[in-house]
Predict the 3D structure of the following.
Amino acid sequence: MIWLDLIEARVDSAEPAVVTDDGVWTWRELLARSGGGVEFLDSIGAPAGHPVVALLTSRPMSFALTIGAAASDRALAPLGPRLTVSELVPCVEALPGEVIVTEAEFEALAREVAARTGRRVAVLPDLPASGWRRDATIGADRPAAILHTSGTTGIPKAVAYTEGRLVARVKVNSQLVDLGPGAV
């Protein structure tokens, strides 16, 4: 079992998946929009098998893109758009890939980082609800997301959260905090 299996099991669920001050997205809507995320990544030429750097905040579109990226073997590498150019450049340079995805309000920052790292910039649109899509060949060893940690050195380091490791983490965390149906 991989993390995407846990996600896919909810493809027809009307239960809440993302709750914000602006409203609620069901699992059905989140996963339909994650299909829009796959289409967006296809349209900007983000190659499968490479991470996609993303300057995003915690918005529903960001969650949909994260799932769509993992489902198409293009793990999202989210970075805080409140970081400085000098903090972002080493993180971006250390990752393979061609594009930086950003929210519109951080486009100027993304363009400056892209100019220093040889990347292109793509602004994340409102993702259409195009249906759940998943690359069935993704295994437990593939990254679901790339996170950054400074660990003991204080220097940011990319850490791949693999599908297998993430499914184990989700199971443990959901038991520790008693997450289950209706626990929103």
The beta strands are 16-20, 23-26, 52-55, 76-79, 99-102, 120-123, 143-149, 157-162. The first strand starts at residue 16 and ends at 20. The chain is about 40% helix and 20% strand.
